[in-house]
Amino acid sequence: MKRLPLLAVVTAIASLLPLLGCTCAILFLTPDHTPRLLTAAVGYGAVMLSFLGAVHWGLALEQPDIIPAGGTQRLTNMRLALGGMPAIIGWVGLCAATVRELAGLLIVIAGFIAVGIGQRMAWQRGAMPRGYLTVQWFVICLAELCFLTILAACMGMRPAQ
Questions:
Q1: Which span out of 3-7, 34-38, 45-49 was modeled with the highest average pLDDT?
Q2: How far apart are the first and last CA of the chain?
Q3: DSSP state of 70
Q4: Which residue blocks in the chain are alpha helix, DSSP H?
Q5: What b/e sequence results for 2-19 when a residue is b if at least 16 CB atoms lie within 10 Å of its CB, and e otherwise?
Q6: CA quadruple 20, 23, 24, 29: dihedral positive or negative?
Q7: Model confidence over 66-93: pLDDT tens digits?
Q8: Beta carbons within 8 Å of 66's beta carbon, 6+ residues apart
Q9: Contact 11, 139 (CB under 8 A)
């Protein structure tokens, strides 16, 4: 597989900025803003999950033999089947957040854990470009840190105002 371009690394890290903004706002603004900011954070988490899954679709579709005469390859099938799961998890989390914000947050947290495990398994099978797992682990871990910080703030553990 080819090497991960620098622009991909920069945009992956920059993708954390909206989530970092929501996290800081939840921590440092008055609690009156928390429900809307929490829904925004869960919504952005759903978007991030969609992109993390879409990478596998892109890798599957990049191959010229996506549907050979004898049927699709096992790796391609796996990528196509599992590539859409993060988007579904994100959507369920976002729907849950419209009723109960913390439930949505917990679903998105679980979704990022599942995606991290899936990314690691794909990397172990040689199904990811060089450097991709490192960048994705960084993004996933920082996103999880933001979500856990938001969870702690919503549970009453926020800095003194």
A1: 45-49
A2: 50
A3: T
A4: 6-14, 17-28, 34-62, 74-83, 85-99, 101-124, 132-154
A5: eebeeeebeebeebbebb
A6: positive
A7: 444 445 577 777 778 788 899 999 999 9
A8: 60, 72, 76
A9: no
